[in-house]
Input
Amino acid sequence: MNGAESLVRTLLAAGVDTCFANPGTSEMHFVAALDRIPGMRCVLGLQENVVTGMADGYFRLARKPAATLLHCGPGLANGLANLHNARRARSGIVNCVGDQATWHRPFDAPLTADTEGWARGVSHWVRCCRSASEVGPAAAIAAAVAASAPGRIATLILPSDTCWDEGGVVAAPLPPAAPAPPDPHAVKEAARALRQGEGVLLLLGGAALTEAAQRIVQRIVAATGVAVKAEMSNAFVARGQGRMAIERVPYPMAQAIAALAPFHTLVCVASRPPVGFFGYPGGPSLHSAPGAREVVLCRPEQDVLAALEALAEELGAPPSAIPPRGPRPEPARGAPTPEGLARTLAAVIPEGAIVADESVSFGRGFYAESHDAPPHDWIHLTGGAIGAGMPLAAGAAIGAGGGRRVVNLQADGSAMYTVQTLWTDARERLPVTTVILSNRAYAILLNEYRAVGADPGRTALAMMDLGNPELDWVRIAGGMGVPAARAETLERCADLLRQSFAQEGPFLIELLLG
Amino acid sequence: MNGAESLVRTLLAAGVDTCFANPGTSEMHFVAALDRIPGMRCVLGLQENVVTGMADGYFRLARKPAATLLHCGPGLANGLANLHNARRARSGIVNCVGDQATWHRPFDAPLTADTEGWARGVSHWVRCCRSASEVGPAAAIAAAVAASAPGRIATLILPSDTCWDEGGVVAAPLPPAAPAPPDPHAVKEAARALRQGEGVLLLLGGAALTEAAQRIVQRIVAATGVAVKAEMSNAFVARGQGRMAIERVPYPMAQAIAALAPFHTLVCVASRPPVGFFGYPGGPSLHSAPGAREVVLCRPEQDVLAALEALAEELGAPPSAIPPRGPRPEPARGAPTPEGLARTLAAVIPEGAIVADESVSFGRGFYAESHDAPPHDWIHLTGGAIGAGMPLAAGAAIGAGGGRRVVNLQADGSAMYTVQTLWTDARERLPVTTVILSNRAYAILLNEYRAVGADPGRTALAMMDLGNPELDWVRIAGGMGVPAARAETLERCADLLRQSFAQEGPFLIELLLG
Output
């Protein structure tokens, strides 16, 4: 058995059965092994950031790691930005990178690069195999690391001779690291803080935003009357009917500071302190009230459900049902507004839909208007590296399975980063409806420019303007095999959304913003 | 003066007057400085690998560095693959990366990443500024490093407070490192080797392929009768009438070994030993004949023209005119073949055209049929990281100026990597004719798969197939503002090429390969 075959068989034994790939010459033996061994679903992406972004989206829904297959240092480099986002989402990925043969590497052929060095910045674990016999055992460790709580990035670098040489050994699955149990002292501390009620915020992140967690959070809130918010960017939030109406900490500094000003104590549940996305001249890095105390109930690596249960017990919180949401909103009409789009979405999405949100500036207010939708799950851009939304949506569709519809709320500037994803959507007939929020500008930059001082002049405007020439998303999508249509009103958008939900494959709506 | 303004003024003083950019929030003060200070041409790319690839193409024609402007670690990561190619091309670039404010960085905001670590693998010089007063002096060093022979990548990381804080100082230009003079001993050694005539190969790379260098090479060849070849991938080759008919070392291992078998001695002129792109089972890393001797006349960092002059002197080589090429080929007809396309191109390209070649497998034989074209320059993918061709073409058009027409021979799979370049082509009305060689497959991988063993099965074929769904390049280009048409025959292709040459802006031809 060669090393490549031992890799595929070891990954399958560990439950890794999906591989997002953009292979190159050095990975041909891996591809040949996939040919011979059934059981691995291979999904091709036409650029590596599509590949790694899909692996992130997959993990967020499937709750188990997929593998990637990338080509040498530069192929890894192309996928780093979405690995960065995946790391911030705490997604687990077995990140496989083929590379030059061990004995060819010293000759510094053109593609030779510092593969390991580039991998370290996004990986919890990196190993470069030196022989075929190492591949299986290393793959078993990689799969276990990737599946360890809450999810980690394990990069396995595979020189091509370690794949084609004989001597491969299939390794038995290893147990992933279980989440650490809650700390009883932290539970007591959190309970003491929460008993103050007024001025206390329960700040939720990570696994504290699943439906199961929210059921316990509801008990805690009912017993103590504390406020609840989610972090600004979250890997996964269960929302809609049957779930709590949780708002996010706002993105703009002034709004974040205002939203957090009432709280003298923050109880962090798998969340981090509310740090600004960027520093601004004269502004604080931390957006919580000056002197506010942070009490950590549990870190993301810990058993979040157990920590919440222990906290509810400690507080003696009786059972409490999540109150029913208000009536489902009616679709909005007329020119698109953020609030109107959110209401329209809430009005038409099917139960169990997934919303992949890279709406950037336009979408900051979507939550307020969509709490009363049917039950759905929401996944965000987590690491701020734009170009995540399109592949996240594709990967989520594959990870969720069962034909669950994904709606990708997608800013136009960031859509262009990984526009190649549309081809994979078409190829795999994924149930993804992409809504391009076409404002023909890097709108976030116009806001930021004004935030740092003066009004933009001609050069600055030109550098934030995507309208010259205008991107025609209907043609771009059509060119990659995805049917598409344009909407200038919300009623047309609602019609197109409904139409896409009634079909099986992908669809793109270019929503023209005024 | 703030740091950003000192940066722009220092770069302009050093002659850096073109900036390829994809700015983000942390670069808004840089953008504001560009607004206030005239003289810097700013070219926007919609993804960072487009930005860095354009900077590479710019240097190859302008022979001076441009600046880039990238956003934080992930923005740099997106541009690493084409920085890798630029490093292999020995292009000079002042690579500016905005980043988190120095005092915000410890808070590990979502976009925070190992910017310096990622930069090191592609940079000859990296500096992260710590205060506004450092920015001007560091920019002067960066500009000098980038312009040092033969061309280097200088990465300047600019935390946002170093840009917005007052205390900026404009720094005077510093002298770039001049190329090292030829080594008289190496010149004598090379002359001794060349006097053997038979069995000696002059292997040219880097600056040995300019027109000026070829004039001296011609004298040496006329005096000694030695053979001449270029490296497989070259940053710049002067070709056509008035230039030598120089073939490249072939890419496929067997062809390269056969082409190099006759030579017991290789005299390297700014070239490296002929190393295979990849290692193959049982194959050699070095493709020159076993035991062949390498004699280095000069390294790429040395003064290549002076070394060639000294060698010609040492050999007592009398003046010799480059022989006129044969008659200009007629355009080919019928179904596209590599030879036919090369002849068609040679028949129709205008004098002074630039060919940006990322034709990958289809284009390996283009040289043989295009030696007799009018004078033109040819630039290759140098580092093997696909996705270079489209931005190289755009950058070359800007770097060459004067409306010189660029023809981009572009494989479809690699075109998709940086497809966003078409938007910049349209926006800047660049004289770029993109010829998409549409074989709807990763054809190179099919070859490589067969090279390593068996015939591809269903999974393998699916992973190399770009035909499901078919990419419609006419719609994709139109969607980004570039007029386009499809050709199924070479006569139609010739018509479209001529038509595009008669216009001012970009055009795309989708050439369907059988």
In short: The mean pLDDT of chain B is 95.
